[in-house]
C-alpha cells in the first residue's frame, strides 16, 4: 500500500514586508515630528551651583511638609504673612527673604510664596537647599 504525502507548498513570508513598512514609518515620524514644544525664543536653563555659602541676614520663612508656615522661627498664619513681611520690608528695604521649605513640601505651596515675596518688593528671594552628600 502506498500512502501519498501532501505536497509541501511553502507560504510566502508576508510578515517581513509588514515589519519593514512599520520601521520605515517609525523612522519617518521620528525625523519629521517634534518630540517637544520649543519656545520661539532662546531658553537657557539655570545651572545648579552647590558649595556656596548661604547668604547671611534677612528674614527666614520656613514651610513644613504639610504647608505650615513660620517666620523667623515663629509660627504664622498664611493670612498674616503678607502684612508681617510688608512691615519687615518697610523697616529695611534691602531685606533678603530666605525660603526654607521641607523637602516633601509640594511645589504648589512654595512657588506662590516666592511670587508673593517678589511682589511685596523683596529684591532677593533665596531658596535654601541642602546639597547631596557623596556616599
Question: Could you walk me through the main structural features you see in this protein, from its secondary elements to its overall organization?
Answer:
The chain is rod-shaped, with a radius of gyration of 31 Å. It has 135 residues and is an alpha/beta fold. The chain contains 3 helices and 5 strands, in the order H-E-E-E-H-E-H-E. The chain has a 5-stranded mixed sheet with strand order 3-2-1-4-5.
Give the tags.
135 residues, alpha/beta, 3 helices
Integer average pLDDT: 79
Give the termini distance in whole angstroms: 82 Å
- The DSSP helix count reads 3
Give me the Rg, rounded.
Answer: 31 Å
At a glance:
With about 140 residues, the protein is an alpha/beta fold.
SSE map:
Blueprint: H1 15-32, E1 59-63, E2 69-71, E3 74-76, H2 78-91, E4 96-101, H3 107-120, E5 124-127
Parallel strand pairs: 1-4, 4-5
Antiparallel strand pairs: 1-2, 2-3
